[in-house]
Amino acid sequence: MDTIGKVKARVYVFFKPSVLDPQGQAIRNALQGLGHSGIEEVRQGKYFEITMAPGTDLEAISRDVLSNPVIEDFRIEVIG
């Protein structure tokens, strides 16, 4: 794939703070069970690395496709 003239970005999708995260809680419990007592909270999420043409509406894609806006927030990081 030719990536000349393309932009790379990362999209992080994660539960809103008010939404329970049972997988994050299970990970925290496992870590504490392994002796990592300093771990107070774990929140899990999704990560996407996207190569796209300049001008692509990544905000709309993140909101409409990659996340569920009712229970999830997202953050976009353009990396080049």
Please list the strands of the largest sheet in the order they lie side by side. 2-1-3
Shape: elongated
Distance between the termini: 16 Å
Q: Which H/E pattern describes the elements? A: EHEHE
Query: Helix share of residues?
Result: 25-40%
Radius of gyration: 16 Å
CATH domain topology: Mth169, Chain: A
Largest sheet: 3 strands, antiparallel
Mean pLDDT: 94
Strand content: 25-35%
How many domains would you count in the coordinates? Answer: 1
CATH superfamily caption: Phosphoribosylformylglycinamidine synthase subunit PurS
Structural class: alpha+beta
Low-confidence spans: none
Return the CATH architecture. Answer: 2-Layer Sandwich
Overall CATH class? Alpha Beta
Could you give a short description of this structure?
The protein has two helices and three strands, in the order E-H-E-H-E.
Question: How does this model look, in words?
Answer:
The protein is an alpha+beta fold and 80 residues long. It has one domain (7-78): Mth169, Chain: A. Helices cover 26% and strands 30% of the residues. It has a three-stranded antiparallel sheet, with helices on one face. The two termini are 16 Å apart. The mean pLDDT is 94.
